[in-house]
Amino acid sequence: MANSHDIVIIGGGSAGYAAARTAADRGAQVAIVDQGPLGGLCILRGCMPTKTILRTAEIAALMRRVKEFGLSPVDVTAHLEQIVDRKDRLVREFADYRIEQLRDPRYKLYQGAASFLSPNRVRIGSQEVEAKAFVIATGSVPNDISVPGLHETGYLTSDTLLDLRDRPASMVVLGGGPVALEFGQFFARIGTAVTIIQRSPHLLSHLDPDVGSALEQALREEGIVLYTGTALQRVERSGSNKRVTFHHEGREVHADGALILQALGRRPRIDGLALDKAGVAVINGRVAVDDTMRTSQPHIFAAGDVTNLYDIVHIAVQQGELAGFNALQSEGALRSFDSRLVTDVTFTEPQVATVGLSEMACRAGGIPHLAASYPFADHGKAMCRGDRHGFVKLVASPAGGKLLGAQIVGPEAGELIHELIAVMYYHGTVADLLRMPHYHPTLAEIITYPAETLAERIGLP
Ligand SMILES: Cc1cc2nc3c(=O)[nH]c(=O)nc-3n(C[C@H](O)[C@H](O)[C@H](O)COP(=O)(O)OP(=O)(O)OC[C@H]3O[C@@H](n4cnc5c(N)ncnc54)[C@H](O)[C@@H]3O)c2cc1C
Ligand SMILES: NC(=O)c1ccc[n+]([C@@H]2O[C@H](COP(=O)([O-])OP(=O)(O)OC[C@H]3O[C@@H](n4cnc5c(N)ncnc54)[C@H](O)[C@@H]3O)[C@@H](O)[C@H]2O)c1
């Protein structure tokens, strides 16, 4: 006999929990299946632990600069085990709260791995569960990229590095995305000699090249050894170290480190789900969905990293809410995901924050646009703070000045971007940014300078 529910959500992370809450709010009988550990990636091994340890690194970096601010120099020694203890305490607190939410009597929680037996039935251990609708929200795992010798030599990923309690003397980081950069800068700032090896000509290669260049300059000034435009060749042991060999500017180059961080992306976690038995199409390793989060099987929806569309947590939540709502919508219109306001923040220092369209995306899509930037090095408040790196760039429509997107590399970029998200949410223009009051002296008032340049070029009053 199978247990029966209106809807079964597979995965109780950010996307799955949002889907479950939305479906329960609509009066559905909801089951959540999670194989554990309960808590989800963001809390256990993603956003929260990394932002906790990065705070230590920010403080250490500032302490090393005290002389510049007229203070006596201080010795900064990082104790990784204490940094990890603090991270573990906070993660436990966040996870306990999420577990309490999952155990709420509004949901039936099954702890185990789900595997489809048919489009309407899953197996969880020895139990069978059936439902009229499903949401797949099983998240992602680190990519398994084949570099000769990498497996044999051994490496860590963001999933395993967070438990390291002894600071390594040196580390080679493969990749130039957010995982590589946040961890690379953290370890460099606690005293590890870090080499970052990026395949693309710039870091964060999905963004405009000036964004990557500004970050590259800042990281190099901190002492991180950074190679861009490389091709990985092989990995092997070299004495007590590990050696990565790669092509760079026509030569073969080696980088040695006590550890290798493999930060070459993540892929959807679909192994064991038996999606073929559910009739759910998988394209390039991801659960394919339309903009209502519906898969190829009309009563099965998917949300979060398993769709491999964004891998960003607030978007996983948004997609989960859509999936939970739409999966119960037997009549009436389905809701769609609006990608206009997609926002992305990398929590390095300087931070990198973007919303909407970049210049690169406008060019690729043939979208008429104008862009203007202003550097933090020339902005009063940033100068008072001693923050010299980066800029604010606005991308606007030449017809009427509607804000299409923004990129910020600089201090508190992850906070500053929210003003631009708000203006874009209300379909505002660069002229609106000029009319809105900006307190002086603040970091936020830098936004008015590129806005003014664009308003003048467009001829806005
Ligand atoms: C190091 C790192 C830092 C990050 N930092 C940020 C950040 O600062 N900001 C940001 O926006 N994003 C960040 N992210 C991305 C963010 O963490 C993810 O996009 C988000 O957590 C994905 O949520 P999800 O619900 O899709 O997946 P998950 O939270 O991974 O949830 C999936 C759940 O499914 C369960 N599961 C899997 N398979 C099965 C199965 N067969 N049966 C039952 N249960 C199953 C798992 O146990 C898990 O609980 C970071 C990611 C990493 C790796
Ligand atoms: N602050 C944040 O929001 C945050 C922080 C960490 C992670 N995340 C999310 O987690 C996901 C994983 O992050 P990530 O940095 O590992 O992935 P990513 O996909 O952003 O970056 C992967 C890097 O690996 C490189 N790469 C991939 N395949 C390669 C190959 N075969 N050879 C050489 N280089 C190769 C890419 O050029 C890129 O630099 C991302 O989608 C990201 O959005 C977000």
TrEMBL record:
Enzyme Commission designation: 1.8.1.4
Binding site for NAD(+): 175-182, 265, 305
Residues in Pyridine nucleotide-disulphide oxidoreductase dimerisation domain copies: 344-448
Cysteine-cysteine disulfides: 42-47
This protein's UniProt keywords: Disulfide bond, FAD, Flavoprotein, NAD, NADP, Nucleotide-binding, Oxidoreductase, Pyruvate, Redox-active center
Residues annotated as binding FAD: 51, 138-140
Gene Ontology MF terms: dihydrolipoyl dehydrogenase (NADH) activity; flavin adenine dinucleotide binding; NAD(P)H dehydrogenase (quinone) activity
Cofactor binding comment, as recorded: Binds 1 FAD per subunit.
Limits of the FAD/NAD(P)-binding domain: 5-320
Similarity field: Belongs to the class-I pyridine nucleotide-disulfide oxidoreductase family.
Protein name: Putative Dihydrolipoyl dehydrogenase, E3 component of pyruvate and 2-oxoglutarate dehydrogenase complexes
Annotated organism of origin: Nitrospira japonica
